[in-house]
Structures are given as structure tokens and as C-alpha cells.
């Protein structure tokens, strides 16, 4: 029963992450094509950043507790990257310069989250 609960909670966490990443990608595309102004875009992205980081931390902790070491080791670099982003001070105009980088990066994160191997049981 614990294994079923683990896989259901993992599925919900991954699905939530995919929705948040898709939302951020849509906001960056809207910003790139000038459908939304930069202030609204950054305020909306900043609203979902912390929940994304917390969900990723819960996902890593859940894999660590459940003993799924391979999935934990795969997710750990992403968690490290998220923590390093929080700890690094950034300039508010960074969005203007990084939009060419952020859009493909979020697309890669979205594709890697939907790949077949990321949700198969070990």
C-alpha cells in the first residue's frame, strides 16, 4: 500500500511541476512576442517559482525516504540548481537578457519531465 501511495503522490507532484513549467513557458513566449509587459510577466513568474522549488524539494525528499536512489540522484542536480538560484542575487533586468536562454531551458525541462523514463517504476 505504501508503494501505491508513493507512486500516486509522485505522479501528482510531477504533474503539478509540468503545469507550473508550462505556465512559465507560456509567460515567456508572451513576453517574447510582446503580448504582456515585463512587469506583469515577472510578477506572474515570481508567483510560481517558490511553489516549483518546494515541490521539487518534496519530490527529492520523497524519493530519498522511499529508497528510490536512482530517481533521487537524477532529481538532485535540479534541486541543487534551484537552491543556487534562490541563494544567488540577481538583477531585475535579467529577464530581458536571458529570454533567449530561458525559453529553450524551460522547454527542455518540460520535455524531460514528460519523457517515458521519468515516470516508470524501478
Observed structural traits:
single chain; 122 residues; mainly alpha; 4 helices; 82% helix; elongated; signaling receptor binding
Total number of strands: 0
Element-level helix/strand string: HHHH
- Computed over alpha carbons, the radius of gyration is 16 Å
* Low-pLDDT windows of residues: none
Number of domains in the coordinates? 1
Major pleated sheet: none
Overall helicity: over 70%
Total of DSSP H or I helical runs spanning 4+ residues: 4
What is the end-to-end distance?
Answer: 16 Å
Secondary-structure-derived class: mainly alpha
Short note summarizing the structure:
The chain is mainly alpha-helical and 122 residues long.
Write up this protein.
With 122 residues, the protein is mainly α. 82% of the residues lie in helices and 0% in strands. The protein is elongated and about 50 Å long. The chain starts with a helix and ends in an 8-residue tail after the last helix. 10% of the residues are buried.
Amino acid at each position: 500500500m505504501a508503494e501505491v501511495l508513493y507512486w500516486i503522490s509522485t505522479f501528482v507532484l510531477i504533474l503539478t511541476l509540468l503545469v507550473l513549467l508550462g505556465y512559465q513557458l507560456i509567460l515567456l513566449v508572451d513576453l517574447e512576442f510582446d503580448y504582456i509587459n515585463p512587469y506583469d510577466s515577472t510578477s506572474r513568474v515570481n508567483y510560481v517559482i517558490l511553489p516549483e522549488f518546494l515541490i521539487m524539494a518534496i519530490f527529492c525528499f520523497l524519493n530519498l525516504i522511499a529508497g528510490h536512489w536512482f530517481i533521487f540522484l537524477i532529481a538532485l542536480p535540479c534541486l541543487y540548481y534551484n537552491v543556487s538560484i534562490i541563494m544567488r542575487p540577481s538583477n531585475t533586468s535579467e529577464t530581458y537578457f536571458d529570454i533567449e536562454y530561458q525559453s529553450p531551458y524551460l522547454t527542455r525541462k518540460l520535455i524531460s519531465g514528460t519523457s517515458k523514463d521519468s515516470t516508470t517504476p524501478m
